[in-house]
């Protein structure tokens, strides 16, 4: 049994990382969506870039089966409505991807008070999808999985009583 391979890099940093408006926009998104660092944002940007690249390639090829597969995948993830076109794929924004992350969905469903608390609940194994505990806050959820998100084993604290 040999050594495991190094995992493939799943993101690409911006070509010009020190532009003021790009830095400001990145920091707004990191704060708004409770990301740990900019690498998580760059992973989402890379995911969006891959979807757009596939759509541009399919516009040139005109392969209906692959077009339908891509559109079905994006509608399953809740990024596009079921009757969308490839032009809709090209109009996706980074916020659309960030809204489909588990951390954001836990916060939007009201299971956590802040984005950062949602992240902590996920990391500390208090969130399950169906019956499976999930510990990755950056996981993209399908529409069906979104309905199954719930909290498990969260202790209820009584205000006013000291712990110690």
Please, could you describe this protein's structure?
The chain is mainly alpha-helical. The protein has eight helices and three strands, in the order αααααααββαβ. The protein has helices at residues 20-33, 38-61, 64-76, 86-90, 94-99, 102-108, 115-123, 143-147, and strands spanning 127-129, 132-133, 149-151. A three-stranded antiparallel β-sheet has the order 2-1-3. β1 (127-129) and β2 form a beta hairpin. α6 (102-108) packs across α7 (115-123).
Write the layout of secondary structure elements.
Blueprint lengths: L19 H14 L4 H24 L2 H13 L9 H5 L3 H6 L2 H7 L6 H9 L3 E3 L2 E2 L9 H5 L1 E3 L13
Antiparallel strand pairs: 1-2, 1-3
Helix pairs in contact: 2-3, 6-7
Order of helices and strands: HHHHHHHEEHE
Shape descriptor reads: globular
Query: Unreliable runs, pLDDT <50, ≥5 residues?
Result: none
Q: What is the tally of helical segments?
A: 8
Helix percent band: 40-55%
Total strand segments: 3
Query: Could you describe the largest sheet, including whether it forms a barrel?
Result: 3 strands, antiparallel
Mean pLDDT, rounded to whole units?
91
Task: Provide a quick synopsis of the model.
With 164 residues, the protein is mostly helical. 51% of the residues lie in helices and 5% in strands. The chain contains eight helices and three strands.
Protein traits:
164 residues, mainly alpha, three-stranded antiparallel β-sheet, 51% helix, 5% strand, globular
